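> example.struct
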């Protein structure tokens, strides 16, 4: 296991300085909720967002941040005027996001969505910060490199993703060499009981209705296709240094058991908890301490029935594609992620049907294989280059697939 257990705090006092990459999103908001409850313990250094300058400025003021960075340069003027008189510095563009990550905060929440989170998160890793890692794309697109850099810089990577946070907690139940397998649970999404034909014709509104979790749009669609679980397999592979054969997915519709570790003696250690990301976030924020009730506690009535079933790779081909990409290794997970980001974007824009998402991912993986793109990215630039090529291959394949599956 690559996560060490030394808490890192400011040396001068017990105050912990925090930076939020992706402060305006779903994970960002849940983190802010926790920070606001403990203002005497946490101080905010920097906050970032994509293009909503008004929201970002409001957050920066509320939190007393020192620096606010907006990814979209066109929103810079709005950000500056919204921060006028506050004393909070403003920045825009990728360099400003990287500056936000480089500023001296003890703890950094990596909650930008998608491959855009790679460079800023790595910038925080390189200076040895403690990272609350929500952005799974860092590990999907460049996992081996990312974890190597974290190890070299002494950065502690704490998993925010609920399943990985659960596994991280359960791994404490034994020795690494005694682990037989790691099981990630999946809710099964809104289409768990639907027929293949119904799933193919699912609408955007139906796909956005997650049964248990409230999350950003991209990950909600990924939960409906089960691609999210596929990305999480790759995430777990790197985070916990596992073989792909040591990883399994179990569908668990109640989302109460978040992850399990099976040891060689047959003991299964599971983590259970409410379906509220504040539990996992608080675990990372206070680690190795715990915070009082970050979310309403689990009621026993909700746990009366816990069901588990095998995932169906035929009805959910995205999970099969992700497993194959994980087993293939090399550039395959990076290609899979990029194609999926394009496909989900098109689906959210109503230009591609639900069945088109895995179809576009599969077509892109095949096109990339024909081009001989197979080498594992050995740097973030290489990962971003595979990401860009894969996005153009996906765009090329898109019209034919959209015509078939719209
Ligand atoms: P979200 O869409 O709600 O928020 C994304 C944040 O990133 C926002 O602040 C947005 O402004 C910013 N952002 C988006 N595109 C950007 C870009 N190109 N450049 C810079 N900033 C950009 O997403 P979310 O649901 O909070 O998820 C964030 C990350 O956490 C994702 O990687 C997701 O897979 C992961 N995650 C989320 C959850 C959850 O419950 N929401 C659970 C596990 C993991
Ligand atoms: Mg998850």
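> example.seq
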């Amino acid at each position: 296991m690559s996560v060490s257990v030394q808490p890192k705090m400011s040396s001068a006092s017990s105050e912990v300085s925090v930076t939020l990459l992706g402060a305006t999103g779903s994970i960002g908001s849940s983190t802010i909720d926790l920070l606001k409850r403990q203002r005497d313990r946490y101080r905010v250094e920097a906050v970032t967002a994509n293009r909503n300058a008004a929201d970002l400025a409001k957050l920066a003021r509320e939190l007393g941040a020192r620096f606010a960075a907006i990814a979209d340069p066109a929103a810079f003027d709005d950000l500056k005027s919204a921060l006028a008189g506050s004393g909070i510095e403003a920045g825009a563009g990728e360099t400003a996001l990287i500056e936000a990550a480089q500023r001296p905060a003890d703890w950094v929440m990596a909650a930008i969505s998608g491959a855009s989170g790679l460079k800023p998160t790595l910038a925080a890793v390189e200076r040895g910060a403690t990272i609350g890692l929500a952005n799974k794309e860092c590990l999907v697109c460049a996992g081996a490199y990312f974890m190597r850099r974290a190890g070299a810089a002494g950065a502690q990577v704490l998993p925010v993703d609920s399943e990985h946070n659960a596994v991280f907690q359960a791994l404490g139940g034994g020795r690494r060499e005694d682990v037989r397998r790691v099981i990630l649970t999946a809710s099964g999404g809104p289409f768990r009981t639907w027929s293949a034909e119904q799933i193919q014709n699912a609408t955007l509104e139906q796909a956005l209705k997650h049964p248990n979790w409230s999350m950003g749009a991209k990950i909600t669609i990924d939960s409906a296709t089960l691609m999210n679980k596929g990305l999480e397999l790759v995430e777990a592979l790197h985070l916990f240094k596992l073989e792909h054969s040591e990883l399994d997915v179990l569908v668990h519709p109640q989302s109460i058991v978040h992850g399990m570790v099976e040891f060689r003696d047959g003991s299964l250690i599971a983590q259970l908890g409410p379906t509220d990301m504040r539990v996992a976030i608080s675990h990372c924020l206070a680690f190795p301490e715990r915070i009082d009730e970050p979310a309403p506690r689990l009621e026993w009535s909700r746990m009366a029935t816990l069901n588990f079933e095998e995932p169906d790779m035929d009805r959910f081909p995205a999970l099969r594609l992700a497993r194959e990409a994980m087993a293939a290794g090399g550039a395959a997970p990076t290609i899979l992620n990029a194609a999926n980001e394009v496909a989900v974007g098109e689906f959210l824009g109503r230009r591609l049907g639900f069945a088109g998402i895995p179809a576009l991912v599969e077509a892109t993986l095949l096109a990339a294989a024909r081009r001989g793109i197979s080498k594992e990215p050995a740097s973030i630039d290489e990962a971003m280059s595979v990401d860009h090529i894969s996005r153009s291959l996906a765009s090329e394949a898109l019209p034919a697939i959209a015509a078939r599956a719209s």
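> remarks
Residues 89 and 263 are 50 Å apart (CA to CA).
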